[in-house]
Amino acid sequence: MATERTLSIIKPDAVKKNVIGQIFAMYEAAGLRIAATRKTFLTKAQAQAFYAVHAERPFYNSLVEFMTSGPVVVSVLEGADAIKKNREVMGATNPAQAAEGTIRKKFADSIEANAVHGSDAPETAAVEVAFFFPASEIY
Ligand code: ADP
Ligand code: MG
Fold this sequence. Notes:
Largest sheet: 4 strands, antiparallel
Strand content: 15-25%
Bound molecules: adenosine-5'-diphosphate, magnesium ion
Structural class: alpha+beta
């Protein structure tokens, strides 16, 4: 299995719940290393650009509002098969469908306020990692 990097965002709902450490522990238990991390507060322009792929979706404006409602934690996770492994530990987008033991089952409130973001493919992971971190800040 290839060593990969993927982008995680701990979303405003989970940051407000004070569960950053619990989510990091779940990444580490899944064999993912935190290669870079930063707490930040997305501007509206950043949230719009990050989720540009969803611009035509009915939930886009609400998603941008939510993602700018409080600070987030952006991280680069690294490990074997990291993109898929992170999607597994995250759980389904809709927490009502998320499996037991996943981050979203444990911490998500709704299909929108669903605790975490994770890149979905190697191409998007590369773009999303570079959106937040220069190579010199990833170890
Ligand atoms: P994922 O985050 O699991 O990759 P998507 O890429 O489909 O899911 O959607 C991006 C984000 O948009 C979701 O994590 C969630 O915050 C929000 N979202 C997705 N679908 C809906 C929906 N039907 N209603 C409201 N928000 C949604
Ligand atoms: Mg997605």
